Amino acid sequence: MKQDMIVILDMGSTENTVLARAIRELGVYSEIHPHDITAAELGRLDNVKGIILNGGENRVVDGQAVEVRPEIYDCKIPVMAADHPTARCEQKLAGLPDKETLKAFVFDECKAETNWNMKNFIEDQVELIRRQVGDRKVLLALSGGVDSSVVAAMLLKAIGQQLTCVHVNHGLMRKNESEGVVEVFKNQLHANLIYVDATERFLGKLDGVSDPEQKRKIIGGEFIRVFEEEARKLDGIEFLGQGTIYPDIIESGTKTAKMVKSHHNVGGLPEDLQFELVEPLKQLFKDEVRACGIELGLPAHMVYRQPFPGPGLGVRCLGAITRDRLEAVRESDAILREEFAAAGLDGKVWQYFTVVPDFKSVGMKNHERSFDYMVIIRAINTVDAMTATVEKVDWEVLEKITNRILAEVGNVNRVCYDMSPKPPATIEFE
């Protein structure tokens, strides 16, 4: 590893990612680890220069205050507490450290160097991938989104033709999404791409399933099964590449951090997984993934593409998925994207999409009483996907989008705009 590292031990804080990002912004790499990490596990991490104990409102679990293992203090690594006073810590602070205190600890106490940058990160990951994979082959789940595209570029740089990309159309893609993936990756970039249309298979598995966590797990599990089937048709596939990023892992929960939601590529993986995972982006925040993509030479339009969840429109067709509501989500989303592009908002707003709830409301269409679905528009801005603010879209733009949806999407009679930031809401509804 070329990067020095500051390790944050999660002792119940809700601001671990804030602290990690603050350290990375100083030019020093930082990772979050469980509070009960052993000295041996710590020793297997490369270039650890310092440890920060980060306590908070979740410090007490089952009536017991979480504590680090005493052996951690004997590792001859500087320790700082952003916590309540801890007798054995070298520094005692109330709450998160301010920038100057953090700089003093990182640079003066830990002697860390400012060597956290994308060039070094990519070189490290390429080396780690080659070491992990050797002369064997990797199967990559290529959705065409930012994360999987950057992983594809990273793997191509590391192992070239040892990579096979598989794009699965699970029937939950945005309008013309799969066609676009095939055009870009197969026809333009000449990637070794296998296209699988599994629409009926996925929708059959999801029939009648309304619980969001169960939906995510079904979609994640079925993805793996499809890849296993494709791998059996190929020779020597032993690894599964994934676009897992840091927020996926953090939001899926740790021992002292409560789960927000499981992600299909974290909580949805089956226990009998037949592959070893290759996840070179799993310690990056979303903005860092984009910076990595640019450094790898990917075109800007691909790197700054709209984020799209792994379960696709399955978590935007709320409740049990029905084909009529799924089509309403797909068509209304296409209208929203067209009008945002026309208004110049596609480059300004970080993420925007529509959802359709699983209930109807009374309205009037064609001078008759209607009992149809509603479309909810969500448009938010964020840096790292951990917090988000709502975009203040001009009324005229919203009115045009509303009129188009009501006129062009047949089973909808109402359009709403979501004003909820994250937190307390999440970016997606499910």
Automatic annotation (TrEMBL):
Gene3D superfamilies: 3.30.300.10, 3.40.50.880, HUPs. GO terms for cellular component: cytosol. PROSITE patterns: GMPS_ATP_PPASE. One of its GO terms (molecular function) is ATP binding. Pathway: Purine metabolism; GMP biosynthesis; GMP from XMP (L-Gln route): step 1/1. Its EC number is 6.3.5.2. ATP binds at residues 143-149. It holds the Pfam family GMP_synt_C. Residues 116-305 form the GMPS ATP-PPase domain. Keywords: ATP-binding, Glutamine amidotransferase, GMP biosynthesis, Ligase, Nucleotide-binding, Purine biosynthesis. PANTHER family: GMP SYNTHASE [GLUTAMINE-HYDROLYZING] (PTHR11922:SF2), GMP SYNTHASE-RELATED (PTHR11922). This is GMP synthase (glutamine-hydrolyzing). It comes from [Clostridium] hylemonae DSM 15053. The lineage of its organism: Bacteria, Bacillati, Bacillota, Clostridia, Lachnospirales.
